[in-house]
Amino acid sequence: MTIEYSRAAGTVRKYLGAMGPSWIAGAIAAGPATMASLITAGAIFDYQLLWVVVLSAFAGALAQYLAMRLGLLTERGIVGVVEEHLGETWAWILVADVVIAAGVAQLVIMNTVASVSATITGIDARLWGVAWGAILVLGLAGRGYRFVELFAKLLVTAVVLAFVASLFVVSIDLGQAGQGLTPTLPGGGALVAAGILGGAVHITLITMHSYTMRARGWTERDYDLATADVLASMLIAFGIYSVAIFLVSASTLTDPDLTTVGAAQALGPLVGPAAKWLFLLGLGGAAVSTLGGNTIVPPFLVADKLGWGTTVEDTRYRMLLAAFAVLSVPGAFIGGEVIGQLVLVLALGTVGTPFAIAIVLYLLNAESVGASNSTLANLGGLALLAVSGGLAANFVREQIATGFDLLSGLVFAFALVLAAATLVLLGQYVREEVTLA
């Protein structure tokens, strides 16, 4: 018995030390946009959207598992697999989808990092934007993937522990929390629900996974380790992070028009007069981890599409990474209240996510993968596609209902193109299956 326990403990320690790729996805997921969505949901709807929060952890883990499976079984980046089995046009659509979603997110996240830095130090946010841009260039283009991975592990762990600790000093209404596990969508809740789910099931997280695993040199032999990596980072760490933030917010916040400082002050009873600074440090830490992780995603896909290497050993990739880091600096000049911007960015990312899920499911059931996808995995993927598609559709409808402006018009056009592409892809798969039958 002692020998078996020692072996099990040794395996756990080995896995914990070897984990990494999915923790970058977790660092992006556990970022300021997710935090803003969770805080907004708790402040406006109390416990009503707890079911969405719990669902997001399971959905995020499932999405990363499917992406992990595709990456390990093909041992290639997703863009290369798409181009080989679907064609160049589909590869470019996927690249464009990711660049748009990640690019918009990068600008708003940089605005968050710069704004929080300015609030803490009193130095102009625009100067902080330039400084953080330089840090990204030196850290990522200089040291590469492993720098991001280590940083992600440390920050995600610290943020999760901080919010779990806060649960012990908050009075949670367990009855209302239990009722919040019943799926209902209150009026006006589609945007926030899309933001919560979008934090866990996002096109950047799905598409980046094959590249981060390649950077680690993982192959099909590492299947068990990769699965444990996904479960530990997305289901456990991200799940605890999300539920803890939501329960704290639903128990203490009541202001539907939140600002970052307003949320911090409302949480004052938890930690006393230091609430503002602790909240801002937490928001800033989450933003920094997401900023670093998000920066590497578009260069991965663009470099793969152009046939370049996807590590800093390839000078072209390093320059592409540095360029995307520099292009994030203008985000610090946006200004405005970041919580509303962050929720909108995640919801916008949700619009692009169903297409990425459809791509992964298509490839996992095609000849591109040696081992056929299980019925359970397919059913889970289809459920994921239906939920993300439904939330994306609700979000688009809410945007249209408020009247077309430049933003809602662009969101509608983006959604229309990707919805058409997803339907065409599904139709192509059905035709292929009928032909084979």
From TrEMBL:
<feature type="transmembrane region" description="Helical">
    <location>
        <begin position="23"/>
        <end position="44"/>
    </location>
</feature>
<dbReference type="InterPro" id="IPR001046">
    <property type="entry name" value="NRAMP_fam"/>
</dbReference>
<feature type="transmembrane region" description="Helical">
    <location>
        <begin position="226"/>
        <end position="248"/>
    </location>
</feature>
<feature type="transmembrane region" description="Helical">
    <location>
        <begin position="184"/>
        <end position="205"/>
    </location>
</feature>
<keyword id="KW-0812">Transmembrane</keyword>
<dbReference type="Pfam" id="PF01566">
    <property type="entry name" value="Nramp"/>
</dbReference>
<dbReference type="GO" id="GO:0016020">
    <property type="term" value="C:membrane"/>
</dbReference>
<feature type="transmembrane region" description="Helical">
    <location>
        <begin position="376"/>
        <end position="395"/>
    </location>
</feature>
<feature type="transmembrane region" description="Helical">
    <location>
        <begin position="277"/>
        <end position="297"/>
    </location>
</feature>
<keyword id="KW-0813">Transport</keyword>
<feature type="transmembrane region" description="Helical">
    <location>
        <begin position="50"/>
        <end position="68"/>
    </location>
</feature>
<keyword id="KW-1133">Transmembrane helix</keyword>
<feature type="transmembrane region" description="Helical">
    <location>
        <begin position="317"/>
        <end position="336"/>
    </location>
</feature>
<feature type="transmembrane region" description="Helical">
    <location>
        <begin position="89"/>
        <end position="113"/>
    </location>
</feature>
<feature type="transmembrane region" description="Helical">
    <location>
        <begin position="407"/>
        <end position="426"/>
    </location>
</feature>
<keyword id="KW-0472">Membrane</keyword>
<feature type="transmembrane region" description="Helical">
    <location>
        <begin position="342"/>
        <end position="364"/>
    </location>
</feature>
<protein>
    <submittedName>
        <fullName>Divalent metal cation transporter</fullName>
    </submittedName>
</protein>
<feature type="transmembrane region" description="Helical">
    <location>
        <begin position="154"/>
        <end position="172"/>
    </location>
</feature>
<feature type="transmembrane region" description="Helical">
    <location>
        <begin position="125"/>
        <end position="142"/>
    </location>
</feature>
